[in-house]
Specification:
Blueprint (H helix, E strand, L loop, with lengths): L7 H7 L11 E2 L3 E5 L9 E5 L11 H22 L2 E8 L16 E6 L3 H7 L7 E4 L2 H11 L4 E6 L4 E6 L7 H9 L14 H11 L4
Antiparallel strand pairs: 1-2, 2-3, 3-5, 4-5, 4-7, 6-8, 7-8
Helix pairs in contact: 2-4
The structure holds zinc ion (ZN) (2 copies).
C-alpha cells in the first residue's frame, strides 16, 4: 500500500486511533468508511480508499467498481435509517494543497442524509450555473474523468437517481458542498470542519450505524 507520510487517512491505516471520527463503520479490500469531523448532520459518512490518491478518478477501473458498490450499500443504509434523501459528493483536487478540496489531499467521497432538496440548493447557489447535468452512474462519471486526464472536479448525485451534476472547480472556493449544507440548515457560519467538529452528530452516526472492530 502506498502510504503518504503525514496524510491523515494514510496514518489511520498504520495506527489505530480512539477519536470517534476515526472509527471504522465499514470496510472492503480497498476502502474504509468513517464518520467525519464537522458532521453538520448525523449519518455523515466518508468512503476513503486505503491507497493514497488525490481524487477518485485516479483509482483503477476495478477499484472504481468496488467503490460504487460500497457507496450504494452505505447510501442505502443511510436512507433506511434516516428516511431522507442521501447525497453523495466529492471535491476532487488534482494537485496537493489546493483550495478546492476540503484541505485533505487524500480522495474521499461524502455520503450525507439531508433534510432538503440538495439538487435545488446547488442549482440555486452562486455557482449553480456552472454545473452540468448528466445521466451517469458514479463509475461512468469517474471513468469519463479518467479519460479526460487529471483535472480537478466537483460532482454530486442523490442516492437512487441517475442525475449526476459535475463542474470544473472554481479557484479559491473550498468546501463548497459543505457551505451549501450549512446554509440550508441555518448554520452558515459553522461549515468549516476544521473549526466545528459536531461531536454529538459523530457519536449519533456511530450509534446508528455501528462500527466494526
Ligand atoms: Zn493518504
Ligand atoms: Zn471532502
Amino acid at each position: 500500500m502506498n502510504a503518504e507520510l503525514g496524510c491523515i487517512f494514510c496514518d489511520l491505516s498504520l495506527k489505530s486511533s480512539n477519536n470517534p471520527w476515526d472509527q471504522v463503520l465499514d470496510e472492503t479490500d480497498s476502502y474504509s468508511v468513517y464518520p467525519t469531523k464537522g458532521a453538520l448532520l448525523p449519518g455523515w459518512q466518508l468512503v476513503v480508499p486505503k491507497k493514497h490518491v488525490l481524487n477518485s478518478s485516479l483509482l483503477t477501473e476495478q477499484e472504481i467498481f468496488e467503490l460504487e458498490a460500497l457507496i450504494q450499500k452505505r447510501a442505502e443504509f443511510a436512507h433506511t435509517i434516516y428516511g431522507k434523501g442521501v447525497v453523495i459528493f466529492e471535491h476532487g483536487p488534482n494537485i496537493p494543497n489546493c483550495k478546492i478540496g476540503c484541505g485533505v489531499d487524500h480522495a474521499h467521497i461524502h455520503i450525507v442524509p439531508v433534510p432538503f432538496d440538495f439538487e435545488d440548493a446547488v442549482i440555486r447557489c452562486e455557482y449553480g450555473d456552472r454545473f452540468k447535468l448528466e445521466s451517469y452512474s458514479i463509475s461512468e462519471f469517474l471513468k469519463s474523468k479518467k479519460n479526460e486526464g487529471n483535472h480537478p472536479y466537483w460532482f454530486f448525485t442523490v442516492f437512487g437517481s441517475r442525475n449526476l451534476y459535475h463542474s470544473k472547480t472554481i479557484p479559491n472556493v473550498s468546501q463548497l458542498f459543505r457551505k451549501i449544507i450549512a446554509t440550508r440548515i441555518n448554520m452558515p457560519d459553522l461549515y468549516d470542519y476544521k473549526k466545528h467538529l459536531f461531536l454529538e452528530n459523530i457519536e449519533k452516526t456511530i450509534y446508528d450505524f455501528g462500527i466494526i472492530q
